[in-house]
Amino acid sequence: MVLLDQTRLPSEEVELVCTDAPALVEAIRSLAVRGAPLLGIAGAYGVALAAARGFDVVEAARALEGARPTAVNLAVGVRRAESAYRAELAGTGEPTAAAVAALAAARALHQEDAEASTRMAAHGVALLDELLPGGGHRILTHCNSGSLVSGGEGTAFAVALAAHRAGRLRRLWVDETRPLLQGARLTAYEAARTGMAYTLLTDNAAGSLFASGDVDAVLIGADRIAADGSVANKVGSYPLAVLARYHHVPFIVVAPVTTVDPETPDGASIEVEQRPGFEVTEILAPQVPVTGAGGGIPVAPLGTQAYNPAFDVTPPELVTAIVTEEGAVSPVTAEALAELCARSRRA
Ligand code: MRU
User: What is the pTM for the complete model shown?
Assistant: First the structure.
């Protein structure tokens, strides 16, 4: 299985080859492959890889789905390929046919994600036009939610890109997204390739940008949306939602229906991944010389403890709308989300 190693971007475009599930688990943990929809796709292909190579598929599936806890898409993707494998094995007793079935399930998920991305972009642009009829949108985004994390053009970034193509994006404000700089390294990389007008800012500059009236809407992705509409996304999303509410700016979440998890009742039930402290106490940019314990340049005294949650949770009352491939939900309520999921199951 060949992946683009996202830890090396934007300096280098390097392929990472995973020949078994443990290698893929490591790629997921190190964020070489990351972002909710892509984690689902990678997890499904990982099950197919284990099946094709004759490894223990159940063991591989459990290791893959446990590699990161917050993005529900990972478990959804893994289980889809595993179910296809098990069903075929139960029917034919043929491991080779079961491996082919797992691969077909992974390919189907990949294709569906690409299609969902196109539909989310269309619904998102329509919503922006409704909320901001004048055009010339100045959109703030956080983390990375473009084609690097998707079978298609992504989630929140795909909406900004569609607005750009329609001539309605004035500027994309890109939060650098400390500590691992997914905004600076990855979103700026993607934005530069599209030719859209974009500006990078430190996360803590967002407040003054709102205060000066330069943000028309916030667009972010999601790693898990609880049944009540609470949204887990990259740490730093919740403060943006608070800022957006104070400044009367729409805060819009864009995610495929697979990110909505009916099994997770509310925000407090979402497991937030805690990551190693060295990601905060060291700068881990790929081009810097390696010196610290985590492989980066120390920026804090040796032995400093760090608080490093990978995600935070935004309550539904701060979310203006959730845009999915099935349409937008606004206001965000448990009932509206449940109906959306039911519609998606019927489709
Ligand atoms: O830790 P990461 O880089 O995997 O976090 C990714 C995010 O938080 C994204 O915003 C989220 O997965 C949505 S991507 C469409």
Answer: 0.97
